[in-house]
Amino acid sequence: MAHEHGHGDGADEVTLEVGTPKGLFTGIFPKTAKVEDVIAAAVNAKGIDSGESLELVYNGVVLQPVQRTLVSFGLAGTVNLELVATGSGV
Amino acid sequence: MATAGELVFEEQFGHLREIAASREWPLERVFILGMKARDGSQYWLLVDCSDYPALPPAWHWYNLATKLLDQLADAPKGSGFLHSSGRICAPWNRLAYKKIDPNGPHDDWDLPNWMTNPKTGDCRTLSAMALRIHVELGSERYQGRMG
């Protein structure tokens, strides 16, 4: 379960600062948390209407599949992520 | 969390908006936003939010030094989203509509109904739009500056 705000000092935790459609969500998660857990926590905390699929992005790379853990993507310490509504044009 | 300065700005701008509306003074809602791409290139956007959210914002690529808007040299390339026209191709960008901007890629989208355009998806807040652009600049699709 995520803790909001503060900083994760433990080696087994990662602090995520997630830009969301409704502002910034900060949470401390176990490294073994899944990407889908982070998305759910951010959506819940910020009251985001998640009618469309949202993707979590790190340095331009979509973190998929969402069942993978944070540590499996090499996330550690404090990390900036983006929760993106995938709608776009073309 | 908003800073004290931001809160003051919002409060004072809100007051000015009330006065401007009552006197029919034109008052633009414009902000400038800077982002770095994955190659370290700095891009600037001037975002005109007048009539937002009835109409989508106009996301102009911007040159902070020359103050010029919509120059190809100041626009990124690399995907249909970072369109070769130099316009961000999304229903939530007013400049994507040809009837607004002759270089806009689309004459088949309905401007007043931009929020319900399926291509808009959940990109219905300024934060969501800015994040979407930033993700594109950081992705492997990004291929540098257009001009």
Notes on the structure:
The complex is a heterodimer of chains A (about 90) and B (about 150). Chain A is about 15% helix and about 40% strand. With about 90 residues, chain A is mostly beta strands. The mean pLDDT of chain A is about 85. Chain B has a three-stranded antiparallel sheet with strand order 1-2-3, with helices on one face. Chain B has helices at about 5-25, 125-140; strands at about 30-35, 40-50, 60. Chain B starts with a helix and ends in a 9-residue tail after the last helix. The chains are: A mainly beta (about 90), B alpha+beta (about 150). The interface of A and B includes residues 49, 82 and 87 of A.
Which H/E pattern describes the elements of chain A? Answer: EEEHEEE
- SS element count, helices of chain A: 1
**Strand content bin of chain A:** 35-45%
Structural class of chain A: mainly beta
User: What is the typical, i.e. mean, pLDDT of chain B?
Assistant: 90
- Secondary structure category of chain B: alpha+beta
Strand order of the largest sheet of chain B: 1-2-3
Q: Helicity level of chain B, as a percent range? A: 10-25%
Overall strand count of chain A: 6
Strand order of the largest sheet of chain A: 1-3-2-6-4-5
Oligomer: heterodimer
Cα-atom radius of gyration of chain A: 12 Å
Rg of chain B, alpha carbons: 16 Å
Provide key terms for this protein.
heterodimer, A: 90 residues, mainly beta, 6 strands, B: 147 residues, alpha+beta, 3-stranded antiparallel beta sheet, 22% helix
Please describe the topology of this protein.
The complex is a heterodimer of chains A (90) and B (147).
Chain A: E1 3-4, E2 13-20, E3 23-30, H1 35-46, E4 54-58, E5 61-62, E6 77-85
Parallel strand pairs in A: 2-6
Antiparallel strand pairs in A: 1-3, 2-3, 4-5, 4-6
Chain B: H1 4-23, E1 30-36, E2 42-48, E3 58-62, H2 126-138
Antiparallel strand pairs in B: 1-2, 2-3
